[in-house]
Each structure stands twice: as C-alpha cells, then as structure tokens.
Amino acid sequence: METLRSFLFEVCGVNAGWKMEDVMDEEIKVINNMVGSDDHVICALSGGVDSTVAATLVHRAIGDRLHCIFVDNGLLRYKERERVMETFERDLHLPVTCVDATEQFLSKLKGVVDPELKRKIIGKEFICVFDAFAKELENNLGKKPAFLVQGTLYPDVIESCPPPGTGRTHSHTIKSHHNVGGLPKDMKLKLIEPLKLLFKDEVRQLGRILTVPYSFLKRHPFPGPGLAVRVLGDVTEDNALDTLRQVFWYLLEEVQAFGVQGDQRTHSHVVALRAVTSQDGMTADWYHFEREFLDDVVQKICNNVRGVNRVALDITSKPPSTIEWE
Ligand SMILES: Nc1ncnc2c1ncn2[C@@H]1O[C@H](COP(=O)(O)OP(=O)(O)OP(=O)(O)O)[C@@H](O)[C@H]1O
C-alpha cells in the first residue's frame, strides 16, 4: 500500500478525489436515466450484502417501483429468514415478498448426494419461484417488470473474463455462473448492476452510507445453495440440516462472544469447521483460531448438538481450495 501510495501521490501527483458518496450519487443518476418513470424493477434478495446493497441503492433511486423477493428454500441458517426479513422491512423499508418454498426444494433434493447436481436442482427451483413471482407481479401491475437488479461485483467481472487467447469477449450476463441459477430466458429483463465496479469492502462502505445496519454488513457470507452444499450427502436424511444449523449457531455464538458449553449422544456424525478471512472475496486465508477458542467451541458443539461427536478443522486457503467445502 505504501509503494502504491507513494507512486500515485508523490510520483504521479494525482488527487485522492474518489469518494463513495459520489459513486452513490452517480449510480442513482444512471439508474434514473435507465429506468422509465412507469417501469418496474425486480430484485432477488439473498440476505447477503451484495443484493441487499444493490436493492437499497435502486430503492433510493426509484422507490416502490422496485419489487424484491426473498426465498426460504429450507436451506438457510438458524432463524435466518426472520432476521433477514426484519432487516429488509424494519430497517431498510424495502418492499419484499417472502416466499416459503421449503417443501418444494427439499422434495427435489431427496436422495441427491452429488454437490454439482444439488446446485443444478436448487438453481432450477429458484428459477421456478422467480418466474412465478414475475408472473404474479405482471398480473397485479398490468405490465411486465422491465429490469432486474443484480449484485454483480468487480471480482465477478474479473472471474468471468474468458481465458486469454480464446478470442471471446465478455458476456453481458457476467454474473450468470455466480448466480444461483440464471434467469428464465423468456423473462427478457434488462440488467441493472450498480455495484459492478466495486470490490466487496467497497460495497460494505457503500452499504454504510446507505444505512444498511452494521450487523448486516458484517454478516458471515453464505452461499446461495445454502446448507445443501455444506451437508456432504443427502440433505434430507438424519436431520442433517438441523444438526448443521445448530453447529453453525454455536460456532458463531462463540466467535462473537468467546464465552462457553450436557452430554447426550446417540449415533455420531463428524462436522468440519471452516473459517476464512478475505478482504476482496477473491482469495481467502484459513483463519488461525486460538487453541483455547477451539477447545471451547468443540466442547460446546459436542455437548450440545445431538448426533455430533467429532469436529475437524479445515486449514486450507483459497487457492488452491474454494471457500465452500463440497
Ligand atoms: N434465498 C434467496 N432468495 C432470493 N434470491 C436469492 C436467494 N439466494 C440467492 N439469491 C439471488 O442469487 C444471487 C446470487 O446468489 P449468491 O449466493 O451467489 O450471492 P452473492 O453473489 O454472494 O451475493 P449476495 O451477497 O447478495 O448473497 C443473489 O445476489 C440473489 O440475487
């Protein structure tokens, strides 16, 4: 950072005039120029930072012509739906429809073990739910929604670059491979991607200016396919989703409070803890927990979560590993 600072300000003599407030104002102008005064816009909210900040920004620009949807696919963390909906409605005043599609997702995932197949099934179900939402909106409004907001970030743009020498150029729907499933082709929605020049830490900064609650901005990232990719096997078996929800809850509680701890085990599962730190979301280091912390959290999990009697720790970074362990 020091080298870059000295190169830019001392050698090149540039001004540090770039401000996040300006980015916000400029993006609001761009959105207002793009969206017609009676156009409607939809946005799928995951409860993650990107889609929340993108939706909040668009809401600033066009108000309640923005229509958001949040899907409970039965694969969310403990009390996530309640927490997320409270933030959307009470803190951000975002117009959100919450759809409980738990049965729909879990019935399709029954017996599925392969993580790639899980992702495909989940993506397809998301599309069905989004599609039904858009159709219902069209009936209520008397016209089709014209735009879709996506929380594409700059790393998505970089990672979507075709390999050099292939002669291919950027695809327009740059986020498609990062998305939970892409979009139904006949929706024909134009994209609004207000964060596509920002990195994750910058999106958090923009979120603070937009008064997105701090607790929300600091929320642990969570994959779109949710707990399905964190259960290594059939997610509908053996109460695996609930077990994992509890394990994760204890780990987070401990991370946040670092305080401590029954013992009632029947048959046993192994769970693995994976915690990483990352500034830009492109690379990640495994987090070096202190031994004392690990002792406490492992004891707490084994004593409190029925069916778990072994805890492993994943200490690989990205690369060569990935953030999720599938
Ligand atoms: N449960 C959900 N309900 C509605 N939309 C969702 C849900 N999960 C994911 N999405 C949509 O799919 C997009 C991609 O999901 P993914 O989990 O890959 O998110 P991301 O790129 O980390 O962004 P975010 O920070 O918004 O979660 C989200 O930005 C959101 O628009």
Tell me about the largest β-sheet.
5 strands, parallel
H-E string: HHEHEHEHHEHEHHHEEEHE
Question: Which topology of the largest domain does CATH recognise?
Answer: Rossmann fold
State the CATH superfamily name of the largest domain: HUPs
Figure out the total of helices.
11
Strand segment tally = 9
Strand content: 5-15%
What is the terminal separation in angstroms?
A: 35 Å
The CATH C-level name of the largest domain is Alpha Beta
The overall number of domains is 2
**Poorly predicted tracts of residues:** 171-178, 259-266
Helix content: 40-55%
Please state the structural category. Answer: alpha/beta
What would you report as the Rg, rounded to the nearest angstrom?
Answer: 21 Å
Bound molecules: adenosine-5'-triphosphate
Shape: globular
Mean pLDDT: 86
Strand order in space, largest sheet:
3-2-1-4-5
CATH architecture of the largest domain: 3-Layer(aba) Sandwich
